[in-house]
Task: inverse folding
């Protein structure tokens, strides 16, 4: 759908699912929207921000897509006293839920409708963060048992998600803080407690992303320690094998010389040499055992 449509008949809320649609230019002309902000709608992605004008507020919000990968997309909003224009690229996942909620509460005010939109957008962050928390717990439980390259890749992918999540939620927090501290009557003062609630959700989201990132950093340290310990164990075993084999190499090298040597003419010379090698091997193993090296 490229043309603007009204999700809730009777309310001056116009939604556009294609930023390149001519409908956006028509609405910009009708409501006197700034051309630079129309350009922001069409050149994505933008940072989350709030810009105040005399007749309206312009906001770039970040809504979350979470299928196989986690991506944040722009949701642009022009909030005026008598109009609300939202612009997304494609469908927004919570649009139907937002409309149902607004109809159920019989919302007639556009500023309250915008609060509902912002609340639904921020609420969508938490289920994804819960999934990340669960995956973080799984990594903590498995990193000691399986310190392998796939586990390392999994840790780095999750850390990258958390960095993106923190960057986005921090910028969204500043946007909501700007709404609370705004001056002017575009949004009713009675909505301030509701926006503060959204702000608190974003603060909690930022805190949780910091916590999970610290946990992943700890898991990465555990991974590196486990790999180092495993390498040390391998080197320890190889060192023991090499040291045990050293007397055997010396003895076989000694008796391999083209000189007159003991037991050379004895019919049991081979057995004597094998016995000597066995005794030297047992002696080395006994010495290592006494030292507690294995």
Result:
């Amino acid at each position: 759908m490229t043309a603007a449509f009204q999700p809730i008949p009777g309310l001056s809320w116009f939604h556009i699912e294609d930023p390149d649609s001519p409908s956006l230019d028509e609405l910009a002309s009708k409501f006197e929207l700034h051309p630079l902000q129309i350009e922001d709608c069409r050149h994505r992605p933008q940072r989350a921000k709030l810009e105040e004008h005399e007749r309206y507020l312009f906001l770039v919000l970040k809504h979350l897509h979470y299928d196989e990968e986690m991506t944040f997309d722009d949701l642009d909003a022009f909030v005026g006293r008598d109009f609300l224009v939202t612009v997304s690229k494609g469908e927004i996942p919570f649009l139907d839920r937002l409309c149902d909620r607004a109809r159920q509460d019989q919302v007639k005010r556009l500023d309250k409708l915008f609060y509902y939109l912002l609340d639904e957008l921020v609420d969508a962050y938490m289920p994804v963060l819960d999934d990340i928390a669960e995956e973080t717990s799984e990594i903590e439980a498995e990193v000691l048992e399986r310190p392998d390259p796939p586990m390392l890749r999994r840790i780095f992918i999750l850390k990258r998600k958390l960095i993106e999540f923190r960057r986005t939620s921090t910028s969204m927090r500043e946007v909501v803080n700007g709404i609370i501290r705004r001056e002017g009557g575009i949004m009713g003062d009675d909505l301030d407690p509701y926006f503060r609630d959204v702000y608190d959700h974003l603060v909690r989201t930022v805190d949780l992303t910091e916590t999970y990132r610290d946990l992943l950093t700890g898991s990465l340290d555990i991974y590196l320690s486990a790999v180092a310990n495993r390498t040390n164990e391998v080197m320890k075993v190889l060192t023991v094998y090499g040291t045990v084999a050293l007397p055997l190499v010396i003895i076989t090298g000694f008796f391999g010389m083209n000189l007159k040597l003991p037991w050379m003419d004895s019919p049991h010379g081979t057995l004597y040499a094998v016995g000597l090698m066995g005794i030297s091997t047992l002696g080395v193993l006994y010495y290592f055992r006494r030292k507690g090296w294995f």
Q: What stands out?
A: DSSP finds eight helices and five strands in the chain. Helices lie at 22-31, 35-42, 95-104, 110-123, 125-142, 149-180, 192-255, 269-291. The longest strand covers residues 56-66. Residues 52 and 58 are 6 Å apart (CA to CA).
